[in-house]
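Protein: Major facilitator superfamily (MFS) profile domain-containing protein
Species: Alistipes indistinctus YIT 12060
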Amino acid sequence: MKIREMQARLQQSRGYKWWVLGMIMLGTFMAVLDVTVVNVGIPTIMSAFHIRISSAEWVITAYMITMTIMLPSAGWLADRYGNKKLYLGGMVIFTLGSWLCGRAGTDGFLIAARALQGVGSGMIQSLGLAIVTREFPPRQRGVALGLWSVAAAASISFGPLLGGFLVEKSWHLIFDINVPIGIFAVLLGLFVQKEWKNPVQGRFDWLGFTSIAVFMPLTIYALARGNAATNPQGWSSPVVIGCFIVAAVALAVFIAAEWRQKHPLLNIRLLKDLHFGVSMVTLFIFGIGMLGGTYLLPLYMQEGLGYTAVMAGSVFLPVGMIQGVLSTVSGVLTRYVKPLVLVFLGVMVMSASFYLASRFTIHTSHAQIMLVLYLRGFGMGLTFAPLNFFSLQNLTQQQMAAAAGISNSIKQLSGSIGIAVLTSILTYRTAFHTARETVSHAQSYVEGVTDDFLVVTFITLASMLPFVWMLLRRRGKPLPVQADGKPANEN
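Structure follows.
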């Protein structure tokens, strides 16, 4: 009885919303941490299961695929069954997936458990933002969202280092560590959080859900399978071609369905707004390079230079800090400088960091690696806040949640595709260098990685092409009209 009284007193107190924020920050930290921790553990997992990189990439992409599918779906499910039930359900699924990952005896079992983890992660990350936004009044919302983003920035900074430390003891620990934290987070949520349901809800978009659930795994599988060592037919394989055809049909069905649906899974009609549409194309291209490039660096350091997992993880420590500080600064600068100027500078700095990475060798010093990472943190910090500001400039408050769903889904989709494409290129270029040169395996591997980084450089530069197109289109024409019929702002 006393526990019920304490719960009721807490839920009616003025500090209730800050308890909720702390609970959401814990869940967000766990979900984002898991991605950064596993990146560092991939070489050790490859060694433990005696698998190639083309198989090991699925440890990451399986998680990202199921998370992307759940991001837009979780909102409707929460409206129907309750935010508290769905959020805590996501925590339970994530924790169970983590426990199963730690028990994996085969790579197939590990990949399946990671897919289950991704389902929970998608629910946690999708509902976290909605819960924080609902609990805080507009005047406190900026502070709350700033603190919430600290959880993600902290996981980016400390995740690789923590992952490296745990991997050196046992790779199982990078998953097992989530179990006690997850149990604590579930118990905290049961005690703290109130239930909330949306009284107004449309029908679930089964056609949109099914088509995107078919499109994503088949696309990633075909990209990964094209250069796989077990596929002698390469890109001409009937399986690869068939997967691409079915995926293309599923994507066409998804776009057609979402365009006509009254309550779509993703409101892609928002892409008609020039600012938002162009920004999402830019985010997709940029995400392929950025997330794919982040995946490559631990491989280079551990497989090419012989770094331990802790050494490889420690170099990422400053990146999240620099990104966090620069994101705040660039957000303030958008009041005085056109956002596209800051985005352009950020993309240029990121491209420079990837180009310098493409010059790495087996003799590259630690200081040179740190310079690349400092530039990357600087570039990401300069890019994201102005890009978000520019993309949402002409949307209404009621359209923000739908816009966030599209943005999050595109980010995860581009990351999955980036990892699949760059792994395929890495496999091909490493084999190419091995066949043509009489050098060590480490040398061939490093040359394959640096070829990948050069591709990432051009992909990152290409992310500015949508904005160039928009600016050229705008010359001599009246300002575009935004989604509610009003003239758009000049940036």
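Remarks: The mean pLDDT is 81.
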